[in-house]
Amino acid sequence: MAQLFLLHLNENECYHCLAAVIVRAKEDRFFLTTNKTRNILFMETFKDLVREKVSSKLSKHFLTTGTNMSSFASKWFDRMFVGSIPYWSVHRILDTYLNEGNKILYRVGLALLKSCTKQLLSLPHADAIQEEVQAFASTFKRGDILMDDSFSIRNLSRSHFDYLEAKRTGCDMSDSLQDRVRKAAVDEDDFGDHEYKKDATVMAPRLHGHSSIVSKDELAQLWQWLPPLQRHGEGMVLFCTSVSVRWS
């Protein structure tokens, strides 16, 4: 973001703009992710949205080929697509980001994958898929078409993001959050494959036992760093110093 600001502002103006963004982020968590846990949730929510809004087949194809979406999507989001798509399009994204927050990052990421879904489904290996995604994004020269495609994706409400995050963390939604989700009036038909709603992925494992070294939240975060195929079971403490070790 600083790199983009410096193309149009002097250093003093750039500093004050960045400070304003950080202040806004403290007030609105959908404006800027401010810690590693929220960063993980942002990425995991994007994976759910790919399954809902782009293609459930593509999501399954990523799993079967061992393709980790984070390997390319995290670069998109962390760098606001700088270096991934042509600069003209990046400026359009920045303009929208300053107006509505990080929802535009979801929109553009989904639009890019939607535009090359057919090509990606034909590739059998993770390396080939990642190369195709990067090559496709870097040559997407029509920024106006990219933005039109991004805003054609319907029902990206913040209450729905809350709902997906609540499922990922295994937390119960508050009454107010449930009300906001209902009021979002998300069209079920836009979700694509209904199998998704029957088999939701939970980010936080049900951990049996405790640790005197790290907290339960930290254990859940460590669990999240495992590859997806190794996270299908539940976390279980097999060894605990306070229980397993006999002190002489």
Can you give a write-up of this model?
The chain has helices spanning 2-6, 11-27, 36-54, 56-65, 70-78, 87-100, 103-115, 117-121, 126-138, 143-151, 158-169, 175-183, 195-198, 216-224, 241-244. The protein folds into 2 domains: 33-198, Cyclin A, domain 1 (Orthogonal Bundle), CATH 1.10.472; 204-248, no CATH class. The protein is globular. With 248 residues, it is mainly alpha-helical. It has 15 helices and no strands.
Which structural class matches the secondary elements?
A: mainly alpha
Give the number of DSSP strands: 0
Helix content: 55-70%
| Domain module tally | 2
CATH class of the largest domain: Mainly Alpha
What's the alpha carbon Rg, rounded to whole Å? 20 Å
Structure annotation, total helices = 15
| First-to-last CA distance | 57 Å
| Main sheet attributes: strand count, strand direction, barrel closure | none
Report the principal-axis shape.
Answer: globular
Name the poorly predicted regions. Answer: 172-178, 180-205
